[in-house]
Amino acid sequence: MATSGPTTTTEDVLAGVDLAGKRVLVTGASGGLGLETARALASHGAEVILAARDAAKTDAALRTIREQVPDAKVSGTDLDLASLASVRACAARLRQQLDRLDLLINNAGVMACPLARTADGFELQFGTNHLGHFLFTGLLVPLLVTGAPARVVNLSSDGHMLSDVHWDDPSFERHDYEKWASYGQSKTANVLFSVELERRLGKKGVHAWAVHPGMIMTDLGRHLTADDVAMLQSMTKGRGEKKDGESSGGGGRAGGGMPGFKTIPQGAATSVWAATAPELEGRGGGYLADCTEATKPKPWALDAVSAGRLWAISEKMVGETFAF
Ligand SMILES: NC(=O)c1ccc[n+]([C@@H]2O[C@H](COP(=O)([O-])OP(=O)(O)OC[C@H]3O[C@@H](n4cnc5c(N)ncnc54)[C@H](OP(=O)(O)O)[C@@H]3O)[C@@H](O)[C@H]2O)c1
Fold first, then answer.
1. Which candidate in 153, 212, 255, 261 could, as Cys together with 289 as Cys, close a disulfide (CB 3.0–4.6 Å)?
2. What is the pLDDT at residue 233?
3. Calpha distance 186→164 (Å, rounded)
4. pLDDT given at position 260
5. How much is the pLDDT for 257?
6. 117 lines ligand 1 (CB under 6 A)
7. Whose Cα sits closest to atom 9 in ligand 1?
8. Is 57 in the pocket of ligand 1 (CB under 6 A)?
9. Where do the structural domains in the chain lie, given as residue ranges?
10. Rounded CA gap, 244 and 237, in Å?
11. Residues 96, 67: Cα–Cα separation, whole Å
12. Could you give the CA distance from residue 34 to residue 109 in angstroms, rounded to a whole number?
């Protein structure tokens, strides 16, 4: 068993941890890393809300968890991050139903898709991965402040190294669309969002971390070509190798033994570590990978001025100004 490294699993991280009394919401928990994150936290006693856009897939995910964890305290809620109306409706429902939230894991995402736009006209990757989560989190801050000490975990990626935010045209309205530049800027935005959230809420006991989960075979890769996969493998340079004979657990496809890929329980481990590790208590605003703080992101992703600038742009785009 490794406690911090590419082969660390969710069960390694949570061994001996009792999460009874903790309430967690995981976005995009209908499959892949989100489902495994929800399953692992629920299996250690947390109450987990699975937020996803496809009710049938959410129901199937709930069934999967209940089969493996019969006493799991899990429920589902509809959330389409590519629609600001859906984000607002979900947040309003949660604020009506809940008195507090201890952990928010902003996990949902799309990657390298052909050009498409959200219901509100934003480019799909920036709109889903960043803007939807930006609005959702902002609207849930009162619940998180009541839950403090609370944490927000934002799923980023080493893919942020592909691009800074396109400050003059983040939604690709005047420039040619490039799927990797778009994914890269959305994942840079996830880190910058963590930096600014930490600055605004850290003193109130709400701490934010960005996470690179590794490279894992999930439905996230539904748009990838063979060339895309080779490019991603060259970026990881051997990090997260699967050990011979290891198989994937949790929901989703196995790593398939491809160099550089993790299993799903290994991939979800850093999210779970970011959410629960005692050594991260009372601080945030950083980038985590392989259950450590060792990996350094590109400087543009941690730049405090850029983090404030992105916040202001995002408020304007979603039409909401936050008072905190
Ligand atoms: N897998 C990797 O190698 C890898 C590497 C680096 C970073 N990440 C990050 O890790 C996170 C999880 O990825 P994954 O690999 O688990 O991908 P996945 O298996 O495709 O799961 C993504 C989840 O997000 C949901 N989702 C997509 N669009 C949504 C929307 N508009 N509203 C609500 N939910 C939406 C999906 O729902 P549907 O099933 O309905 O589409 C699914 O539940 C992502 O943020 C990704 O960028 C993954």
1. 212
2. 75
3. 9
4. 82
5. 62
6. no
7. 155
8. yes
9. 10-317
10. 18
11. 29
12. 10
What CATH number has the domain spanning 10-317? 3.40.50.720
pLDDT over threshold 50, residue 256:
no
Residue closest via CA to ligand 1's atom 25 equals 28
Nearest-CA residue for ligand 1 atom 45 is: 109
Average pLDDT, integer, range 131-142: 98
Q: Confirm whether 287 is a catalytic residue.
A: no
pLDDT at 255: 47
pLDDT band at 258 (very low <50, low <70, confident <90, very high): confident
One-letter amino acid identity for 107? Answer: N
- Comparing CA positions, the residue from 166, 112, 203, 155 lying closest to residue 310 is 166
Choosing from 122, 172, 183, 193, which is the catalytic residue?
Answer: 183
Say which amino acid occupies 284. G
The beta-carbon contacts of 173-178 under 8 Å, at least 24 apart in sequence, are: 177/115, 177/123
Q: Is the CB of 79 under 6 A from ligand 1?
A: yes
Tens-digit pLDDT profile for residues 30-55: 999 999 999 999 999 999 999 999 99
Residue 143, CB-side half-sphere exposure with 13 Å CA sphere:
24
Q: Which two tokens stand for residue 111?
A: 């990657």
The runs of H, that is alpha helices, within the chain are 10-14, 32-43, 55-68, 84-97, 124-125, 133-147, 179-201, 226-236, 264-267, 269-276, 299-302, 304-318
Cβ proximity of 165 and 188 under 8 Å: yes
Q: What is the pLDDT of residue 203?
A: 98
Total-model pTM: 0.94
pLDDT digits (tens, 9 = 90+) for 89-100: 999 999 999 999
| Residue 236 reports pLDDT greater than 90 | no
Q: Quick one: which of 202, 112, 121, 104 has its CA closest to 157?
A: 112
